[in-house]
Amino acid sequence: MDQSKKSEFVVVANRLPVDRVTDEDGEATWRRSPGGLVTAIVPVMQRREGAWVGWQGSPDEDLEPFEAEGMTLSPVRLSGSDVELYYEGFSNATLWPLYHDVIARPVYRRSLWEAYERVNRRFAEAAADVAAEGAVVWVQDYQLQLVPKMLRELRPDLRIGFFLHIPFPPMELFQQLPWRREILEGLLGADLVGFQSRDGASNFVRLSRRFCDLKTQGHEVILDDRTVQADHFPISVDAQELITLSTQEDVKARAAEIREELGNPASILLGVDRLDYTKGIQQRLQAFTELFEDGRVKSGDAVFVQVATPSRERVEEYRILRDEIELQVGRANGMYAELGAPIINYMHTSHTRKELTALYLAADVMVVTPLRDGMNLVAKEYVACHGDLKGALLLSEFAGAANELHRAFLVNPYDIGGTKQRMYEAMHASPAERARRMRSMRRRVIEHDVDLWAKEFLEALENRR
Ligand code: ADQ
């Protein structure tokens, strides 16, 4: 690549931050993908003439680097078999369940590992190709844990940061992984390894000591010629954008319309998730249904709206989960719904930001009950939207967000009885109590927004050498 086109700041992620859209004339263009990570990083990219290295989302397609939304995008090609083995396989059938408390059984298969190595090398080579001398490279997430080491071997001049968006497991679980040492060595190629929580960072330091025979000091792992810093940087949302959206008249009107369409019950409870077995969707629906079974709640008192975005539908576990949830919803409505008034409204679709914001505004209780979650942005989005100080958040202790949102109604989702009780309390909390809790949570989310997250990570990375 021509030196003048090289970038001082490079992000490497499994996906490029754009989606292909086809307009009315059949012309394909690129549109920035929604989401906090992209929003937070784009301004940094624009200031520093950044480049983003990633897959464009469809297999077997060769694309030249292109410009979109003020960024240089460098596509990495994935074949159909790469998608199956590296992405659906090692990333989502091995690492994802292992890193989420083995809620589902991880698949350990050598062919998947080999694909993971091969594809990680391709990403590392692509990053090495676009980075200017001494550039800062920021690698994202569990799909690319080998990239830091591979990239350092190719380009020792770079400053490399890595951020893991999901939990990093404790010794007892990580130990299962047949390639545990290779993964740790991959991450140790970075100058700074960031996690969502303090626990993730300390698990990483302990594991490096145990499985790579390295000395550690506090948050640092000591190698022969340098040290690697591990720290926590809890990710957040673009709070200002959500405040703006949630105070728009049309969004508020839509929220009122949603309440009307649901028959104006005393309580609207809401769940918004990717359809994933880590999110505890079944546990929350069971707790809700049991309130009817116990006679504590009656049709007309409360309605649950569950929005579940289709996700990873080619991975077996996800297909099974979808069927189970649909069965559960059908049973609950069969037992307790009245004509034209289901107790659970289930939608297996994605929503626009606007519609999602209207749903957040309409909901009296936001129900976020993951069995394990790196952070959970939905919880923070709900809080950011409730400038009216109405609304209550029911939040799992197992979400990273619980480390910050202490004033949520906290639950252990494995404890259905306890979850049911807290859900009932959240539904019946007084306006004054809701306001007190919401005010405290909003302070945290507004001060610690996604811009601050990116800034703190990048400053820590700049300070590394
Ligand atoms: P996810 O597991 O995808 O993220 P989450 O943090 O909740 O989980 O983010 C989901 C995002 O998708 C939110 O911004 C939400 O608004 C949006 N979304 C969900 N359902 C939707 C729907 N039906 N329609 C439209 N949008 C929808 C991973 C980790 C998390 C971590 C994030 C960021 O698993 O723990 O918080 O990365 O680091």
TrEMBL record:
One of its GO terms (cellular component) is cytosol. GO terms for biological process: trehalose biosynthetic process. SUPFAM superfamilies: UDP-Glycosyltransferase/glycogen phosphorylase. One of its GO terms (molecular function) is alpha,alpha-trehalose-phosphate synthase (UDP-forming) activity. It comes from the Bacteria. Belongs to the glycosyltransferase 20 family. PANTHER family: BCDNA.GH08860, TREHALOSE-6-PHOSPHATE SYNTHASE. This is Trehalose 6-phosphate synthase. It comes from Actinoallomurus bryophytorum. The lineage of its organism: Bacteria, Bacillati, Actinomycetota, Actinomycetes, Streptosporangiales.
